[in-house]
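I am writing to request your help with a piece of structural work I have in hand. I set the record out below, with my sincere thanks for your time.
___
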Amino acid sequence: MNTRSEELAPAVRSILDAAADRPGGDERVAVDARSLSTAFATAEADGRVPVIAEVKPTSPTTDGARREDPVDLAESMVAGGAAALSVLTEPEHFGGSLDTLDRVRAAVDVPVLRKDFLVREDQLDAVEADLVLLIARFVGDDLADLVAAARDRGFQPLVEVHTREELAAALAAGAELIGVNNRDLGKLAVDLSTFEAIAPEVPDGVTLIAESGIATPADVQRMRDAGADGLLIGSAIMDAEGTDEAGTGGDVSANTRRFTAAETEEEV
């Protein structure tokens, strides 16, 4: 790992420092993964926008926390049309856990992404999932080895980038699933034009996912027009109608449907 930590926002640097100290698994896992490309194709055939809805109890960029059972939230997202789910497993800053991912994956039949900050190969062995997130900025020169190690275990690696240079590294590493994070981890600022600038550089055959800052159905349409095959949406689904003192917010199923039906609504 060769991240230039001085270029990261303090909250992100704290997350990365914690990730470096987190242990990996004791035994190598072997995963029979559910296909994300098949899930996206099924959504498209059903007239739904392919959305990866994120089970995110809290984060450094949001206020409050959702305290419902994560399995209930996940099932509501699938009922709302989510093609896949993302489950936070980072414990210190996002309130996630490996157990939550296990429980969610057992309860649903869609692909589940492990959303965490993995920096070493042994950390892949902590839990089974269908996809794992590899952040190009965090793993640096180890990216190609981690992509290969993930595939060897049966995972589908989703490589996250924010710049053209990171995109080039992801493509050189053989990434077939690429997520463009609209959030700058140096400043935590979000700009949807980040995706629009990078998407034209992505070759055909790569599944391209827009991440962060997608807050409205209009944002969905904007990202789809720019070339997004799918979208990863977290806070806008979890907190679309706010979170009260009991840790509950809007109807997660209805919130999800706002985004999975966005293109249909535009046409009406």
